[in-house]
Design goal:
By secondary structure, the protein is of the alpha+beta class. It has five helices and 15 strands. Strands 1-11-7-15-5-4-2 form a seven-stranded antiparallel β-sheet. Strands 3, 6, 9, 10, 12 and 13 form a six-stranded antiparallel β-sheet that branches. The chain has a two-stranded antiparallel sheet with strand order 8-14. The two termini are 34 Å apart. The model has no long low-confidence stretch (mean pLDDT 96).
Length: 236
């Protein structure tokens, strides 16, 4: 494989799976070059590309803005979503087995999205997020409907420490019968961070329990932080 698909396939997926099992989130590695990052970032101001724009403050989601792409997705966005699917799918299935849950996800992403559409979840969910100084994103989960894929990806389009400061990616895990655990990670330019959408299996006296997780972004202290988000189920 070449291009984006080849880069995604070449990531250390064994290490990524270990990181997901340990903390529910992991920086998997670099998947985009400088030109690709710039091209994606430039799409943000093209209104025709997006189906909805969300002002976070207006909804008490934090401060900043994000935009959901409409179909058809830009070629690189669609390619990235397709490229990650076969590598995330085994983790999703293994987690479902550990938790004694159904594993409804077919081998092909297109078949899964068609299943979402038949269930009334037909709105695309890949999105771009833009934060300036003082902006942040409240802890949340991106569920959107009854059909959910348990992993998603966020890709950095700017350089932490140079284009912006602050703005760490944050997860909070509600551990069974224990206080919550927070994890913060910096996303480098072109790097892909994989994290759980809803919950993940953790060891318990019964074998495995579901630990709910939420994610957000800490306050951006300076500059501008932009990311691409890849969600693998569509919205109702």
């Amino acid at each position: 494989m070449t291009g984006v698909a080849g880069r995604v396939a070449a990531l250390d997926w064994e290490a990524a799976e270990a990181g997901l099992d340990d903390a529910g989130c992991v920086v998997a590695g670099t998947v985009l070059g400088d030109g690709e990052r710039a091209g994606l970032a430039a799409l943000y101001d093209d209104d025709a590309r997006f189906r909805a724009t969300i002002n976070m403050a207006a909804h008490r989601f934090g401060e900043g803005e994000y935009r959901y792409f409409g179909y058809p997705l830009p070629g690189l966005v669609a390619e990235l979503r397709e490229a990650f699917w076969p590598h995330l799918l085994p983790v999703a299935r293994r987690w479902a087995e550990r938790l004694g849950r159904p594993s409804p996800w077919p081998d092909e992403l297109a078949d899964w999205l068609e299943r979402c559409h038949r269930a009334g979840q037909h709105r695309p969910t890949p999105l771009m997020l833009r934060y300036g100084a003082g902006d942040w994103n409240a802890l949340h989960r991106d569920l959107y409907g009854d059909l959910v894929f348990p992993l998603q990806v966020v890709i950095g389009l700017d350089r932490p420490g140079r284009d912006y400061t602050g703005g760490e990616f944050v997860t909070v895990e509600q551990r069974p019968r224990a206080q919550s655990r927070a994890t913060s990670l910096s996303i480098g330019a072109g790097e892909a961070l994989v994290f759980t959408t809803r919950d993940r299996p953790v060891r318990s006296a019964r074998g495995a329990s579901a630990a709910p997780m939420r994610h957000g972004v800490s306050v951006v202290r300076s500059g501008r932080r932009r990311t691409l988000g890849l969600v693998f189920h569509d919205a109702a």
